Amino acid sequence: MPITLTRVTRDFASIRALDDINLTIEDGTFLTILGASGCGKSTLLNLIAGLDAPSSGRLAIDGVPIAKPGPDRVVVFQQPGLYPWLTLRDNIAFGQRMRGSIDWPRIDEVIGIMGLGGFESHRPYELSGGMQQRAALARALVMNPKVLLMDEPFAALDAQTRHRMQAFLLELWDKIGATIIFITHDIDEAIILGDRLVVMQARPGRIAIDQPIPLARPRSWDMTLEPDFLHLKRRVMSVLAA
Ligand SMILES: Nc1ncnc2c1ncn2[C@@H]1O[C@H](COP(=O)(O)OP(=O)(O)OP(=O)(O)O)[C@@H](O)[C@H]1O
C-alpha cells in the first residue's frame, strides 16, 4: 500500500512552505526529490516522517493517517549523528535498544551487509566519513523500515566516496526492497538513483516536475552520457533556472 499526500499545505507564519501537494508513492519506489534551497523538500520529508503536521490536507501510509513517527519510517540525515562515546556496534544497536530489545544476530548481519565488519568496536572518530554514513544507514536498516527517508545523506561526502555510497545504496535497495525517498541538490545524483523524479519550486513550495526516470537498471555513471539522461537533465535545469 502506498504513501499518499492529498492536498497537503504547510505554512510557517506567512511562509507557505508547501502548497497543495498531491503525491502517491507506490511501495518499493526509489523517489528522488530535487529543488532549490527553501522549496520545501525537508518540510515534505518531515511530514512523511511524522515529525511535523500539515496545516491542511492529509498524509497516509497504507491507508493509515500519519500522525507521528513510526517504526515503519526512518530518517537518514546529512550528518551521520553517531554517538561519539559508543562503539560502532552499539551505535547501530541504539534504535533497537530504545525500542526495548536488541536482535544482535540482525545487528551483525547488517554490519556485514554494510561492509563494516572488523570495525565493530571502533568509535565514530576512528571511521572515515563514508563509513560513518554507512553506520548511520545501518542504524536505520536494523529497524527493518518499510520506508527510508533520506535528507541529502551524501552531501557532506567527497565526490569519490559519494559515488561509492550511491552504488552501495542502489545495491542495498535492490536487496531490501524498501521505499526510498531521497532528497538531493545534485541533479545527476537524482537522475541516476531514482525510479521517479520530483522537482520542486519555491514560494510557495510546489511540484514542478513529477515523472518516471526512463533509464534501465542496473544504473551506472556511463548513463549520464545517454540521450534519455541528458534530455531529462536539460528539462530539470530549465525548471530550476526559471
Ligand atoms: N520550523 C520552521 N519555522 C519557520 N519556517 C520554516 C521552518 N521550517 C522550514 N521553514 C521555511 O519553509 C521553507 C521551506 O523550508 P525547507 O527546509 O523545507 O526547504 P528545503 O527545500 O529543504 O531547503 P534546503 O534545500 O535549503 O534544505 C523555507 O522558506 C524555510 O525558511
From TrEMBL:
Matches recorded under Pfam families: ABC_tran (PF00005)
Protein's recorded name: ABC transporter ATP-binding protein
Keywords assigned: ATP-binding, Nucleotide-binding, Transport
GO molecular function: ATP binding; ATP hydrolysis activity
Domain ABC transporter, residue spans: 3-227
The UniProt record lists the keyword Transport: yes
Family: Belongs to the ABC transporter superfamily.
Protein's UniProt keywords contain ATP-binding: yes
InterPro entries reported in the protein's UniProt record: AAA+_ATPase, ABC_transporter-like_ATP-bd, ABC_transporter-like_CS, ABC_transporter_ATP-bind, P-loop_NTPase
SUPFAM superfamilies: P-loop containing nucleoside triphosphate hydrolases
Taxonomic path: Bacteria, Pseudomonadati, Pseudomonadota, Alphaproteobacteria, Acetobacterales
